[in-house]
Design a protein that fits this description.
about 300 residues; globular; alpha/beta; binds zinc ion; Rossmann fold; 9 helices
């Protein structure tokens, strides 16, 4: 049962795939099964699935999804799923597992959305920035694609999947409007974050500066830190943002050295003990409030 996603969604039925525990009258022991590679994809899949399909998250809560190495059990989930939703390039070991083991349909989010190169987010790299879920409108595109796939797999519930995807899109478009309005009029537009997970928010007029660059477990150089200290001092930056799934030590040290606050901005790559009761929408709202506060918006 541990591998099942228990998302806090009204009406979401989470069932074990094990027939021994399933009442025949429920009739869902052979229901549609979706394996989602990490939390934002699992959130979208669960919203679209509603109670017509079950969704499992391959990245256990508290895990850092970048370096996930699928276990035997997760490999079996990929093999048995009617639909695997993943993002090629974000979790290399998951890419291999999907290529070698997927037995059903496969949906690559990187095929659905137009990823933006890191260099367009001010980072010196030709790689695409995988953190597209920071843009709610891009996540809505994945929701529509999940609905299309599930409708092909399970035509009897096609109307449900379409309606669920439309409701999700409504929530995500509202969130996008809240970000645009909330960040439209701020005293500062520079935000210092630990790793480069927030480039897609630059669409709302924010300039993201990172302490660690591309990888959450790299170390900043003294030159990087000196540059950020100058930036914090010259622009009157009030807050340095660490994040939830990696050690906040570097962000806290930089905040301490420059006499500013250290707060959490959640990249929403996964839930943790601290955020177990949250979901994508509530975490995005908390991030927006933290950004508004730090940059003196409104
Ligand atoms: Zn990341």
């Amino acid at each position: 049962m541990k591998a099942l996603v228990a998302l806090a969604l009204p009406g979401l039925l989470v069932l074990s795939g094990c027939a021994a525990f399933t009442d025949d009258s429920v009739g869902l022991d052979n229901g549609v099964q979706v394996a989602a590679a990490f939390y934002p994809l699992a959130y979208v899949a669960a919203r679209v699935a509603g109670d017509a399909a079950t969704v499992e998250n391959l990245t256990a809560p508290g895990g850092e999804p970048h370096d996930l190495e699928p276990t035997v059990r997760e490999t079996a989930e990929v093999a048995q799923a009617d639909l695997v939703v993943f993002e090629r390039g974000f979790q290399p070991a998951v890419d291999d597992t999907v290529d070698e083991n997927a037995g059903g349909a496969v949906l690559d989010a990187a095929d659905v959305v137009s990823l933006v190169p890191f260099r367009d987010h001010g980072v010196d790299s030709d790689e695409d920035d995988p953190h597209f879920w920071q843009d709610p409108l891009l996540l809505a595109e994945v929701g529509d694609a999940v609905a299309d796939q599930l409708s092909d797999i399970d035509p009897a519930h096609a109307d449900d999947y379409a309606a669920n995807a439309e409701a999700l899109r409504g929530d995500l478009e509202r969130l996008d409007r809240e970000y645009a309005a909330g960040l439209a009029d701020c005293q500062r537009d520079t935000v210092v974050v630990s790793h480069d997970a927030f480039g897609y928010l630059e669409r709302y007029g924010i300039d993201m500066q990172t302490i660690l660059g591309l990888s959450p477990d790299s170390e900043p150089t003294p030159a990087d830190l000196a540059r950020l200290q100058d930036l914090i001092n010259s622009q009157g930056i009030t807050t340095v943002f660490g994040e939830s799934l990696v050690s906040p030590a570097v962000a806290e040290a930089l905040a301490h050295d420059t006499g500013v606050r250290s707060e959490v901005l959640d990249p929403i790559e996964g839930l943790s003990d601290r955020t177990a009761g949250e979901d994508y929408l509530s975490l995005m709202h908390a991030n927006l409030r933290a950004l508004e506060e730090a940059n003196g918006c409104g």
